[in-house]
Design brief:
Length: 211
């Protein structure tokens, strides 16, 4: 728990109307309407990831703005909000039951130190609570990754190669890998590749928003 966890905004982060929560009741209803626990998934997997589940479509501006806000503020309130949606996704029949550990796709050390926290770590702790499995820090991210959205798919893969590493030895565990946003899937796939190199059996991805 950091200092930000205790702070609540006095306005809705979307419409800026006075609100006791990060979302006013009307924006909350709009977000609810965009959520479909079965809508965004790639059960065939994505690269080294065995399957992928997303809470929202990144193309929808409301969840996108909420994720961006979480990235800069880390509000406890936003985490609780996403936790509620996570609970509904993990309750679906096709969500993997064989998870042993929950971890996250870390930001670069530079990005983390700029904010003092990593929103994906916070989200992974919520996901661990939702699936009732232990949370573990398994990956570190070195160096400098250029801003991904400016690069094409092939360049993105090249860009993330070698940026993740992990020291721990895994013994065939199935991992739930949490990330905030998955666009092409290149970053999540690279993190999954490194986890499998460490000894993970399967890697399932859960993200807030997917393109
Ligand atoms: Zn609002």
């Amino acid at each position: 728990m950091g200092i930000w966890d205790s702070l609540a905004p006095l306005h809705c982060v979307i419409c800026r109307e006075a609100s006791e929560s990060v979302l006013c009741p009307s924006c909350r209803r709009r977000l609810d309407a965009l959520f479909d626990p079965r809508a965004f998934r790639c059960s065939g997997g994505n690269g080294y990831a065995d399957s992928m589940f997303a809470l929202f479509h990144y193309g929808d501006s409301l969840p996108r703005d909420l994720v961006l806000d979480l990235k800069s503020t880390g509000y406890r309130d936003s985490l609780e909000l996403f936790y509620g949606y996570m609970e509904r996704v993990v309750a679906c029949d096709d969500f993997p039951r064989e998870i042993d550990l929950v971890t996250f796709c870390p930001r670069t050390v530079f990005a983390r130190s700029a904010r003092g926290f990593d929103q994906s770590e916070k989200l992974a702790r919520e996901a661990a609570r939702a699936v009732n499995r232990p949370f573990a820090v398994l990956l570190s991210r070195s160096g400098y990754a250029r801003t991904q959205h400016k690069l094409s798919g092939a360049r993105r893969e090249e860009n993330v190669k070698g940026t993740f590493f992990g020291e721990q030895k895994l013994m065939g565990e199935n991992i739930l890998l949490v990330d905030d946003v998955v666009t092409t899937g290149a970053t999540a796939s690279e993190a999954a590749r490194v986890l499998k190199g460490m000894g993970a059996m399967r890697v399932f991805v859960l993200c807030l928003a997917h393109d």
